[in-house]
Specification:
Number of helices: 17
Helix content: 25-40%
Oligomer: single chain
Radius of gyration: 22 Å
Bound molecules: cobalamin
Shape: globular
Largest sheet: 7 strands, mixed
Length: 500
């Protein structure tokens, strides 16, 4: 029998604002990489083991891995789960498997993670073509064969070797359909009222902007003259329609979570798809991260109305900063007037669409006054929910420092996008200002916002808003306040099955 190339998502804690039924989405990266391997590497058996969605804790995972005996274990994803990934790598080592790590975190810490001896190869950036060549090379004579694989780093004779950059895929339509059949699809969004039958789907990769704090444009960027440049690529509407037909009809998916860094980057593509969905009688709920200027543009052209008719009912907008200077400073080209216009359009013309705005705080030079200004703007913009995200020094961004690395991965628990008094360099003064403004700053605009949001928009939107408000209140009361008073970590929630 062929040897097993196994993608594994290990047990991990849950982000406190996610409900148990939607805390884990189908791991699209693994499904896409596995599909590519199946197409081009028939001499490997390919499987995906998504432990969290199976409520599989560490003891069961170890049993499962011993039974499956993979030759390669591949892993990836967020910095916050670094400790879990390294624990998985140790387990893999004890079973004699090779370890491959990729994604937006490991791709930026190769010089730190490879010397631990827990990982054999790090894959940088887009993974599909690389993983096919890598799978082949792992059968040959590593490290000689590894040198020929573009887009990786590996450890050889006491040093990290980084191969030449991997060019981006030219046409995303050339990707095989993700290997949904390797995942327990019926479990994603099972029991969820607001996101039932949740699917993860991508219409594009990358972003056309280069915001300082963000890894997404870097992960799918174009490498020229020793630098990563932002680049965005799109799938065609026909290809997306095909994906949605399969996801809804063969896999019973009923809610699409667009994972694109910026779903409305293309002026026509989302509307073309929406029209195709409506023609095919396929109205399906959708959430997406969008840009404010795209909202304004698409409202004018009528594209937004078509998208909403085809099911778009949740949009998330990165507002980020309270003023134009702040936006320019982080190299984001949206302006406050455009943000005001976008939220006004959404509230007035699309009240059924749930809107969430995110702000970032903790940038160099931020003071409690900056935080209070963000809270004030959040109340003025007619949005249904706001998240305040601390600047997180993600590897790959200019805020990362090599000395933040630790071999246990425990330091990365604070890379959770949550206010936390224990984060290295945490700004308690900013977090106190945030907590006080959120609890006590009840302006007429804020009250109008809440009342209007709950009155308009229908039952679904009311449910989503109430649920998030309850979770935010719980987090502010238990997590943030306790963290500020006692210094204890306010963070991710370990599920009961974690060690089971
Ligand atoms: C869906 C999603 C979620 C879902 C589901 C999470 C889950 N674990 O199931 C929800 C909303 C719950 C969520 C929560 C969180 N998320 Co999230 N999430 C995403 C999102 C939008 C999509 C991921 C995806 O499917 N991408 C599409 C695939 C195709 O792209 P890709 O992952 O980059 O994969 C390609 C390459 O990177 C590479 N690759 C990736 N992995 C691997 C592995 C191997 C072995 C190889 C060879 C290659 C490879 O090949 C792939 C194909 O080319 C990303 C943003 C994004 N657009 O990527 C953020 C993102 C991953 N999340 C992020 C964060 C911080 C979080 C939270 C901590 C906080 C939050 N809510 O935002 C929590 C943590 C939750 C948890 N416990 O796991 C950050 C991670 C940053 C970092 N470096 O750590 C991201 C990048 C968003 C951001 N703004 O920066 N998230």
């Amino acid at each position: 029998m062929n040897q097993l190339f196994l993608f594994v998502r290990p047990p991990r804690p849950v982000w406190p604002f996610n409900g148990p039924s939607t805390a884990f989405w189908p791991p699209l990266a693994f499904a896409s990489l596995a599909a590519m391997l199946r197409r081009h590497s028939p001499d490997w058996r390919v499987e995906i083991l998504d432990a969290p969605i199976l409520k599989m804790g560490w003891r069961s995972l170890e049993r499962e891995l011993r039974a499956r005996r993979p030759a390669v274990i591949a892993m990836g994803e967020e910095a916050v789960s670094c400790a879990e990934s390294l624990r998985l790598a140790r387990l893999a080592r004890s079973l004699g498997a090779k370890v491959v790590a990729g994604g937006c975190f490991f791709g930026h810490v190769a010089p730190q993670v490879l010397p631990t001896g827990l990982v054999d190869v790090v894959v940088h950036g887009e993974g599909e073509n690389t993983v096919v060549e890598l799978a082949h090379a792992l059968r040959e004579n590593p490290p000689v064969a590894l040198e020929t694989v573009a887009g990786i780093s590996f450890w050889r004779a006491g040093e990290v070797v980084r191969t030449k950059p991997r060019p981006l895929l030219k046409n995303l339509d050339d990707l095989p359909m993700p290997a949904w059949d390797l995942l327990p699809m019926a479990r994603y969004g099972a029991g969820s009222r607001n996101h039932p039958g949740l699917a993860a789907i991508e219409s594009s990769r990358g972003c056309f902007e280069a915001c300082d704090f963000c890894v997404l444009w870097r992960q799918m960027g174009h490498f020229v003259s020793e630098q990563t440049q932002p680049q965005v690529r799109f799938k065609s509407a026909a290809r997306l329609l095909e994906e949605i037909k399969i996801q809804t009809r063969a896999f019973g998916r009923r809610y699409l979570g667009w994972v694109d860094p910026c779903f409305n980057a293309h002026p026509r593509r989302p509307a073309e798809l929406a029209e195709a969905l409506l023609r095919a009688n396929l109205v399906v709920g959708q959430s997406a991260w969008v840009r404010a200027d795209g909202i304004v543009r698409d409202a004018r052209s009528g594209a937004l109305a078509t998208m909403v008719r085809s099911g778009l009912n949740e949009v998330y907008v990165g507002v980020e900063r309270p003023d134009n200077d702040g936006l320019q400073a982080v190299h984001k080209s949206t302006t406050i007037p455009v943000l005001r216009e976008a939220f006004a359009i959404l509230a007035r013309d699309f009240p059924e669409v749930f809107t969430l705005g995110t702000f970032i705080y903790g940038l160099p030079g931020d003071t409690p006054a900056t935080v209070r200004a963000s809270v004030r703007l959040a109340h003025e913009l007619p949005m249904d929910q706001t998240f305040f995200i601390p600047l997180t020094p993600l590897p790959g961004t200019p805020f990362w420092r090599d000395e933040f690395w630790d071999d246990t991965g425990e330091n990365f628990r604070d890379f959770n996008f949550l206010p936390s008094a224990t984060r290295s360099g945490a700004r308690r003064d900013l977090e106190w200002a945030l907590l006080c403004a959120s609890l006590f700053h009840w302006t007429p605009a804020r009250i109008r916002n809440y009342a209007g949001g709950l009155r308009r928009g229908g039952a679904r939107k009311r449910r989503v808003t109430m649920r998030l408000t309850a979770r935010s209140a719980w987090f502010a009361a238990h997590g943030l306040l306790r963290g500020l008073l006692t210094g204890q970590r306010a963070g991710m929630v370990f599920p009961r099955w974690y060690e089971s």
